[in-house]
Specification:
This protein has helices at 2-6, 16-43, 48-59, 61-64, 66-72, 78-99, 109-134, 147-159, 163-173, 179-207, 210-241, 250-270, 274-283, 289-314, 329-347, 357-367, 374-383, 389-431; strands at residues 243-244, 247-248. It is mostly helical. Strands 1-2 form a two-stranded antiparallel ribbon.
Length: 438
């Protein structure tokens, strides 16, 4: 459906064995190119995910043109790739849930909840003045001619934080379960739910389907309650019966794979996106470090090396950066400024939770990471006719720029934090002669 919106007609009718061949070719090209470009990004101090995003962009119409891009990945193959990308995302978020230590946020759920609300609300409010600047036929689609739904979707694009990318970066840096990392992931997990509820509300405003939105909200609450009260203890009993010495049997892994797919389906139908379902199912696992470590080891390479690049690259097929012209650059800069400033403003209250200014800055930099999850909001708006392909392309550029910013910001802030700590230690030693080195 997404592919048909962006590329309504392919150059040929691809079915049967030919479709299989094209899908396999596309997966090979994506995984190989993503690995190569991801490795290059790591060498220059950027997150691997930037290379994985660029892999999709390079295989799309930006560099190759529409016809060649459609030859490489015909319109008929793109729904198959989209399905693989969804499974990839659910599996990765399950891995993030397995490796996430719930104990890190015990006693801090209120803090994470407040930051999550602010991280959606502040950019959403900024979306209104930005939308006022953009509210022309160049950026607003037919159903975006009414200002309110258009402003809500602009705000949704500004509000996105990429849960998968943020977790990916924290995993690579070994900071997933630090105080700051735990608060950041907890906040972003709640933020993802709020963001998709907000997108659902924006869609309801555009289609006048308010009652449908209310039903989805109630179903989400039921899913969360049943998961924690019923599924969590039942899953613990099943895994304990199917594991020995920390090793999980094939039957146990089958239950896990079936469960994570089911939770992805339930979350998608409820309206909070399949990725939230994958993470939730991972968190529901029993708090047995050996079992969790075994499961993570079995899932890691398939999720991170093989499947995840397909998710990050898929939307690149649908992106044409040639739509960015001299006339659209000022608008792009306004959107980019609002996207960055909104996240830093939203993270500022973390200073009152005991974090230093440096840690608060790190948290804001992580909130500013958008990955390609921002394209979920953009693609929904595009499908509903609220935004145009030009606005969608601006959203892609914002995703790339904010991702490129993240690691340099993190490294600069971490270096500054290390310098502050070293200075404080020197001051303490100098002021206390008993602690002078001998």
């Amino acid at each position: 459906m997404i592919a048909s919106v962006l590329h309504p007609a392919a150059h040929t009718d691809v079915t049967g064995p030919a479709l299989t061949a094209f899908v396999l070719l596309d997966v090979f090209l994506i995984v190989a190119l993503a690995r190569i470009l991801g490795g290059l990004m790591v060498k220059i101090g950027q997150p691997r995910v930037v290379g994985e995003i660029l892999a999709g962009v390079l295989l799309g119409p930006t560099l190759l043109g529409t016809q060649i891009s459609l030859w490489i990945a015909p319109a008929e193959a793109r729904p198959v790739l989209a399905a693989i990308a969804t499974i990839a995302l659910v599996l990765f978020m399950f891995l993030a849930g397995v490796e996430y230590d719930v104990g890190v946020i015990r006693g801090r759920a209120g803090q994470a909840g407040l930051l999550a609300v602010l991280s959606v609300a502040v950019p959403a409010v900024l979306g209104f003045p930005v939308a006022a600047i953009m509210h022309t036929a160049t950026y607003a689609g037919p159903k975006g001619s009414d200002f309110l739904p258009f402003a809500l979707f602009v705000g949704a694009a500004l509000a996105v934080t990429a849960f998968p990318v943020m977790a990916h970066i924290l995993m690579e840096r070994g900071e997933l379960n630090t105080r700051m990392g735990g608060l950041g992931v907890a906040t972003t997990g709640m933020m993802s739910i709020l963001m998709f509820l907000y997108i659902g509300f924006a869609g309801a405003v555009a289609s006048k389907g308010y009652s449908h939105f209310l039903v989805k909200f109630l179903l989400m609450l039921v899913l969360l309650a049943v998961s924690w009260v019923t599924v969590r203890p039942a899953l613990g009993r099943v895994l304990r019966r199917n594991s020995a010495d920390g090793q999980v049997s094939a039957n146990g892994m089958a239950v896990l794979f079936a469960g994570l797919v089911l939770y992805g389906l339930l979350a998608d139908r409820v309206g909070i996106n399949a990725l939230v379902g994958g993470f939730l199912f991972g968190v529901l696992l029993p708090e047995d470090r050996d079992i969790r470590r075994t499961i993570a080891a079995k899932v890691h390479d398939v999720a991170m090396v093989f499947l995840l690049p397909i998710f990050f690259a898929f939307a690149g097929f649908s992106t044409d950066l040639k739509l960015i012209t001299a006339r659209t650059v000022p608008v792009l800069l306004v959107v980019l400024l609002a996207a960055i400033s909104g996240k830093f403003l939203a993270a500022a209250p973390a200073r009152t939770f005991g974090l230093s200014w440096t840690e608060t800055g790190v948290l804001a930099a992580l909130f500013n990471t958008r990955g390609l999850l921002v394209l979920v909001a953009g693609l929904i708006g595009l499908q509903l006719g609220i935004i145009t392909a030009t606005t969608f392309t601006i959203i892609v550029v914002v995703a790339l720029v904010t991702n490129l910013m993240t690691l340099p910001l993190l490294n600069a802030l971490s270096h500054r934090g290390a310098g502050v700590k070293e200075t404080a230690m020197r001051t303490e030693v100098t002021s206390d002669p008993s602690r002078m080195p001998r």
